[in-house]
Design a protein that fits this description.
- By secondary structure, the chain is an alpha/beta fold.
- It has 39 helices and 19 strands.
- It has a five-stranded parallel sheet with strand order 2-1-3-4-5, sandwiched between helices. It has a four-stranded parallel sheet with strand order 6-7-8-9, with helices on both faces. Strands 10-11-12-13 form a four-stranded parallel sheet, with helices on both faces.
- The radius of gyration is 38 Å and the shape is globular.
- The two termini are about 60 Å apart.
């Protein structure tokens, strides 16, 4: 086919959007489309002199005189009502935005079609009712039938066409049938009936028409503001097709059934009985790939229709045009990665394709109920004569006979669940049925004569076998029994399946959990098998079936002669089926398929699961090289597959069961790999020579890595017993006392490239954590020398070590928290993650287990040293390490920390300077640009030498300071063996690169074995006698504890000379305060006036507000606990611990009145006291909080409601400010002030004896100083506070937001100082303005000090809450008119002020000598005079207003900045 010139698209995108055409605006449309017709096209125009076609099956583009669109795009509101939780964050606002965008998309599509057709038929006209109010129902759903009637009416009345003789191209965009309370089938049926009514109407009323039918569920959410539109598409398609809780498989099957129903509607051929009318089903839009992006404009989260977005919208039109020129059965998917080329009609095919001219005799009519012949059997004969069990129940898994198996179970996904195994041909929907009784590995329907499964084979040996599944159902049905496979499960889901399986076996009265032998088959990918050993299961033989060769599925998909639901296949396995043949994607897939299989072998062959006599895991590889089964004609045989052509049919289940049985009886090293399912498989039998299920031991098989014993070590120590009583001192810690091991560091600890083959640079990204010197736990010490494997020789129950390969996120990494390329500044975060893991893991008793934590960092700091010698200075390096160690010291009890000294990197240069070595010298700059490329004699070499020495010296000084020897259960020991290193060399003098990974920078397993031995020996050596050098080639013999030195060496048990600090409490950053005010007793008589209220008179404390008052995130370590409300730490109402450790307003007041009540403690709602604040609250929620507070106080038996003096603190407004640009009316200054007034009115009317602190809302603009991404903030600024953290500095919109912020403060103060609340003697409201001019706390380097903030860099940390409490307390003791109106966030424990004898009362306007009218005229700050603020603010507003006016005037026509067009975005609120 020829392609249209790209110049068309330039013209098209410079044109205006297509408009609704009715008779009254024909001329307007004519004018707007005229510019599109002046551009050149490369394809030949069809002659307009010939007569128009008489048949729709020979219809050419030049015959078309009218283009029309009917578009019903679905109703988001209906789905929102049914799924508010799913749609809350996606549904736009205002309500008409979705309709407007959907209309634009249809118009852009049809404008493209119109432009293309007009090149062949210049007089073509466009008709559409999309957007006409008369076609819109109350629910805003466009009614297809009404639209069709309007279009027919418009065309009949048009003066531009001959209705009966002109050809019409009509495109019907059919909507998604959103699920209601009815079933999927009913929903689809109703939708089909509605569509059929529209097509019937067009068929009867419209002569000479070619109708495109486009299934278009995607159009309901193209406008939604989300970074991943494919994710959004999946959510809405799930709502379209099935209920919100349906599985991925259900979603895909119902989606296909809906498309199939459309095809069946056209299969009836009812619309092909006339020669001048047809309906052609085009590719559905649900398969479109969506890279759409919404652009942010101002503070409005509206979708901006950019030229790029218009182009993507128009690309749909090009795709539709191209499909009209493609035969039925060859239509293509829609893609938007680039504008597709538009095809031209050819001489051979000059017409639009219909079903008839595509040479399709008929659609393949499928019977949905065709039964499988009852004569068909999938049974098997068992040829085995000897089926007897062992004479006595075996104690070893290596002596296990088939008849000894008493319990069978299985884990996996839908292939083990049996999806579709018993489905009839073409009954695709039945693939959702889980035929567990037919499952190859655990199904137990009928018997072996009719159903071949592993269960039925074993029942021939032991008829009393338990655990198999029967019939149909999910894993939760009783008949599933021990088949705990879950349809749709991935490798990460296997641990939870294993736990359920264990629970079922333990609680089943028919199973003797300790004595019965069990066979468990696992078929899925990954290294998650280790999760099964969290709770050890006795007497188990585990079949680990490796993943099949998945790319063979492509043959079935690509064979057009086979009827398969390809939409389902593509959706279930897009990475396999979508790429082209011989593409890089397929090559990469094949690579990962092999790596996946190799990973399973590596895990099992590590010997990790052969440490017990009653447990083993055996890899059964029969599917590794499987091919697609074929028919005698050589075609793929789909009879082995369920109707979806993806899952296995019973025919395949039978073959797989036979294959796994044979694998179980074959010795390791001789196991067969089934290459073709269609071959005849004869069952093997146990015999006298090999009567057992085969394991590595009874196969006399040696795992490949065990032959490499050069990496193993011998432990010759005799004294391996722990202390008689658990030690209380780290200086009396024996190796056998260590129960937990952990590590922090960089890629040398993460294990990059340890197990990589020579020259395999691609594998350098693999993290071999199980082989890492300080934390790896693969295999055992016999084959893998690591510190954990050494310690396991002393304590077999050691835990915490990493295994296998994978990143930090893999469960197998466990307490190996090292990150590749990590620098010292990353170390504190690693500590936080480590502490959280140890606290939350059920295998670890955090308070009582002894821990060894190895820290090794600095390589990547040195590698970057020359780039910024200040940033990477030894002082900064030491400071980062100190911060990490301080955290460990403060948080982790019972720990010995190995601080491994920074390695001397300079000898590694020789590997890159010697051209004779096969090292990737071109990567020296990438690996370590400040060290590896430096040649002898250069000044840079001297600089790096000095840096290394400075790094090493800084760590020595840090440890020898004694700051980590202040308590008996914690110490840090410097292990200096890497202070200088000797490069390994061959006999010819060349460096021995076998000690290094393929990149010649990281270390191979050979080196890691040496490192672990050197570290172990360093740990046993006394301080002052530790080795300070390391030679890769040393013959390192593992040392042993001795009778005289049985402990791991520390400063104390080494009688070292460095003098530690005196033991004291942990140097925890507790942010407590000192308060040494002269003794103040309560007033002799309870005061009747609030103006004579002393701190000691306050008996009840309370608070209203948002998450700043609930203390959300105050001690959070990550996203998982960010939402926790640490109410006990809240600045205004929390009272955890005492003032000496936690600075809060209640803890201050308790120094004056220990009987204070109402405060919060802990994190639970039950201990919130009178803290009625709610996370996410805005000012409009405040009156309800006030009523709730009064209700609680009146009903509390702990207070005297009428007599007790109450202190109430209110802080609200941050969430109002963060959202005010999204909804200016709801969050206006006026509404804010009105809500505050309503709240205070309630308190004023209802609450006796009350002093109310009204804290001004903070100045939020300062938060924009935080570089969120660089600072590691866990949430984006725009998700937290879009109106302040999503605009650029100095833009008028930002100035406007700052003005609104100040207006909030001013209106609040004006209302309170108006005298409205001064008429009662026992009630006062006082503005506390310390947040008025919020100053961002900074480090010495001028960057924000994030220790004041939670991990989201938005809420306050415990330190921030402490500073707020200090500022509030001091404000309360400052006279009105002279209060400090800025924060001073610098930690000092003695910043708290005291009441004085002259001024013993909490200050009010009255006892400050101020009248209400005077307050705003006085200086409202100590160093920031209020008048100066007003003058500066006024000048700024005037200047800003001028700028705003000028810029907004320029932009006004493009994008007015109003809340009316804003898209609502869910925010994480204060």
């Amino acid at each position: 086919m020829e392609k249209l010139a790209s110049s068309l698209w330039l013209a098209f995108f410079l044109g205006t959007a297509a408009h609704v055409l009715t008779p009254k605006n024909d001329m307007k449309e004519q004018m707007e489309t005229e510019p599109l017709r002046s551009f050149h096209f490369s394809c030949k125009m069809q002659s307009s002199s010939r007569s128009a076609s008489s048949s729709v099956h020979t219809l050419r583009p030049s015959d078309i005189k009218a283009v029309a669109a009917i578009g019903d795009l679905g109703n988001i509101e209906d789905s929102k009502a049914k799924h508010p939780d799913l749609l809350q964050s996606l549904t736009p606002s205002p309500s008409n935005l979705s309709y407007s965008t959907e209309r634009d998309l249809i118009q852009a599509n049809m404008k493209t079609i119109l432009a293309l057709v007009s090149r062949f038929s210049p007089s073509v006209r466009y008709y559409s009712s999309v957007g006409n109010s008369s076609a819109v129902s109350r629910s805003r759903t466009l009614d297809l039938l009404n639209q069709a009637k309007e279009i027919v009416k418009s065309m009949k009345e048009s003066q531009w066409m001959d209705y009966h003789n002109d050809w019409k191209l009509i495109t019907v965009f059919h909507p998604c049938p959103f699920q209601a309370s009815i079933s999927q089938a009913t929903s689809h049926l109703n939708s089909m009936k509605q569509l059929e009514g529209v097509l019937d109407f067009l068929y009867e009323e419209v002569p000479k028409a070619f109708v495109n039918l486009v299934d278009s569920p995607l159009l309901t959410f193209l406008h939604l503001p989300h970074s991943d539109q494919n994710y959004v598409r999946d959510i809405f398609l799930k709502l379209c097709i099935c209920s919100s809780d349906c599985s991925r498989l259900e979603d895909v099957v119902w989606r296909w059934s809906y498309q199939d129903a459309l095809e069946n509607l056209l299969t009836s051929r009812k619309y092909d009985l006339k020669d001048d009318f047809t309906v052609v089903l085009q590719t559905p839009l649900q398969e479109v790939n969506m890279p759409f992006a919404t652009t942010r404009q101002d503070n409005n989260y509206s979708t901006k229709k950019t030229p790029v977005l218009e182009k993507k919208f128009a690309a749909l039109g090009v795709g539709l045009w191209n499909n009209m020129l493609q035969p039925v059965g060859q239509k293509q998917l829609y893609y938007f990665t680039e504008m597709p080329k538009a095809w031209c009609p050819t001489q051979e095919n000059p017409y639009f394709f219909t079903f008839k001219n595509s040479n399709c005799s008929s659609f393949p009519v499928k019977s949905l109920t065709e039964p499988i012949s009852q004569q068909r059997s999938f049974g098997t004969n068992i040829p085995c004569i000897d089926r007897s069990p062992s004479n006595t129940v075996p104690v070893s898994v290596h002596n296990l006979r088939p008849a000894d198996i008493k319990v069978i179970g299985a884990l996996g996904d839908s292939l083990t669940a049996g999806n579709g195994a018993g489905s009839s041909p073409y009954n695709v929907i039945d693939v959702l049925t889980q035929y567990r009784g037919l499952s190859w590995s655990v199904g137990g329907n009928e018997n072996i004569s009719t159903v071949t499964t592993l269960t039925n084979i074993l029942r021939e040996f032991n008829p009393s076998l338990l655990g198999f599944s029967t019939g149909k159902g999910t894993e939760n049905t009783p008949n599933a029994y021990l088949n705990q496979a879950v349809a749709g499960a991935r490798a990460q889901d296997i641990p939870s399946q294993a736990k359920r399986l264990i629970d079922l076996m333990k609680t089943d009265s028919k199973i003797n959990f300790q004595e019965d032998w069990k066979l468990v088959t696992l078929f899925i990918g990954g290294n998650d098998l280790c999760g099964q050993c969290d709770d050890p299961v006795p007497r188990v033989f585990v079949n680990m079936v490796t993943i099949l060769h998945i790319t063979t599925l492509r043959k079935l998909y690509q064979e057009n002669s086979i009827t398969c639901p390809r939409l389902i296949m593509r959706s279930l396995c897009p990475c396999v089926l979508n790429p082209g043949d011989n593409s890089s994607e397929i090559e990469m897939l094949e690579f990962f398929n092999r790596r996946y299989q190799e990973g399973i072998h590596r895990l099992i062959e590590s010997g990790r699961y052969d440490t017990r006599e009653d447990f083993t895991v055996v890899v059964q590889p029969f599917l590794e090289e499987s091919r697609m089964p074929t028919t005698p004609e050589g075609l793929p045989d789909s009879s082995y597959f369920a109707p979806d052509c993806f899952h296995f049919h019973q025919k395949a289940h039978s073959q797989v069961a036979r294959a796994v049985w044979n694998n179980m009886l074959e010795p390791l090293g001789e196991k067969s790999k089934l290459q073709a399912l269609e071959t005849v498989i004869t069952l093997k039998c146990p015999n006298q020579v090999q009567p057992y299920l085969m394991t590595y031991r009874n196969s006399n098989y040696t795992y490949p890595n065990e032959t490499a014993s050069i990496y193993g070590s011998q432990m010759l120590c005799e004294g391996r017993v722990p202390s008689i009583n658990p030690p209380t001192s780290v200086h009396s810690l024996k190796p056998a006392d260590v129960q937990i091991i952990a590590a922090l560091g960089d890629s040398l600890t993460a294990g990059n490239g340890i197990g990589s083959k020579p020259n395999d640079l691609v594998d350098m990204t693999t993290q071999y954590r199980g082989l890492s010197w300080s934390i790896g736990g693969d295999a055992s010490l016999k084959s893998v020398t690591t510190l954990p494997n050494i310690l396991c020789e002393f304590n077999a129950n050691l835990t915490g070590y990493s295994t296998g390969t994978g990143s930090l996120s893999e469960p197998t990494a466990f307490l190996n928290q090292a990150l590749p390329s990590a620098q010292a500044e990353d170390l504190p975060d690693q500590v936080k993650h480590l502490v959280k893991l140890m606290k939350n893991d059920s295998r670890i008793n955090f308070d009582t287990d002894w821990k060894v934590i190895t820290v090794f960092i600095g390589v990547h700091d040195l590698c970057n040293y020359c780039k910024d010698i200040n940033h990477y200075s030894a002082v900064n390096f030491s400071s980062h390490v100190q911060e990490a160690l301080d955290l460990l010291h403060a948080e982790v009890p019972k720990a010995l920390v190995n601080l491994v000294e920074v390695m001397d990197l300079l000898p590694l240069r020789q590997l890159f300077l010697d051209s004779r070595l096969p090292c990737p010298t071109h990567l020296a700059e990438d690996h370590c640009s400040c060290v590896l490329p430096i040649r002898e004699g250069l000044s840079e070499l001297v600089m790096i030498k000095e840096a290394i020495q400075a790094y090493q010296s800084s760590l020595q000084k840090l440890v020898e300071s004694g700051r980590y020897d202040t308590q008996e259960d914690f110490t840090v020991v410097l292990q200096p063996f890497l202070r200088s290193i000797v490069l390994p060399r061959l006999q010819d003098g060349h460096p021995d690169i076998s000690f290094f990974a393929p990149d010649c920078f990281h270390l191979s397993q050979k080196s890691h074995s040496q490192l672990s031995g050197a570290l172990w020996n360093n740990m046993l050596q006394p301080l002052g006698e530790k080795s300070v050098s390391f030679s890769f080639m040393d013959n390192i013999t593992l040392s042993c504890p001795t009778l005289h030195q049985p402990f791991l060496g520390t400063y104390k048990n080494s009688n070292d000379t460095h003098s530690p600090l005196e033991p004291s409490k942990k140097p925890s950053q507790n942010w407590g305060s000192d308060l040494s005010c002269p003794g103040q007793t309560a007033s002799k008589k309870s005061p009747t006036s609030v103006h004579m209220l002393q701190p000691s008179d306050i008996q009840v404390i309370a608070a209203l507000g948002d998450s700043l008052t609930t203390a959300v995130g105050a001690k959070a370590t990550g996203l998982n606990d960010l939402k926790t409300a640490w109410r006990g730490l809240s600045w205004s109402i929390g009272s955890d611990e005492t003032l000496e450790t936690r600075t809060t307003l209640p803890n201050i007041l308790k120094k004056f009145n220990p009987n204070l009540s109402g405060f919060s403690t802990g994190t639970q709602k039950e201990t919130a006291g009178f803290n009625v604040a709610e996370g996410g609250a805005t000012a409009q929620n405040l009156p309800a909080q006030a009523r709730e507070l009064i209700k609680q106080m009146k009903s509390s038996p702990d207070i005297n409601y009428k007599e007790d003096w109450k202190l109430v603190t209110i802080l609200i407004g941050a969430n109002d400010l963060c959202q005010c640009c999204l909804d200016k009316e709801t969050f206006s200054v006026e509404k804010y002030a009105k809500h505050l007034q309503d709240t205070l009115d309630i308190l004023y009317k209802e609450l006796p004896r009350a002093f109310v602190n009204m804290v001004e809302v903070m100045e939020l603009a300062g938060l924009r100083q935080i570089e969120r991404e660089a600072s590691g903030c866990v949430l984006s600024g725009e998700s937290l506070c879009p109106c302040f953290l999503n605009t650029q500095e100095n833009f008028p919109e930002q100035q406007e937001m700052e003005r609104i912020n100040r207006d909030f403060q001013d209106r609040n103060a004006m209302m309170i100082n108006s005298g409205r609340y001064t008429k009662r003697e026992d009630f006062a409201v006082v503005v506390q303005p310390f947040f008025r001019n919020t100053i961002m706390p900074l480090h010495n380097d001028g960057k924000p000090d994030l220790s004041f903030f939670a991990v989201d860099c938005f809420h306050f940390s415990e330190r921030g809450h402490a500073e707020m409490a200090v500022a509030l307390w001091n404000n309360m003791l400052e006279p009105v008119g002279h209060k400090q109106s800025y924060n001073n966030f610098t930690y000092e424990s003695s910043k708290l002020k005291c009441p004085t004898s002259e001024h013993p009362f909490l200050f009010t306007s009255k006892n400050s000598g101020m009248q209400s009218s005077e307050i705003n005229e006085e200086n409202n700050g100590d160093t920031v005079p209020y008048w100066a603020v007003i003058v500066a603010a006024t000048a700024g507003i005037l200047a800003g207003s001028l700028i705003v006016w000028v810029l907004m005037a320029q932009k006004g026509s493009k994008r007015p900045w109003t809340g009316d067009t804003a898209t609502e975005e869910k925010v994480t609120a204060f």
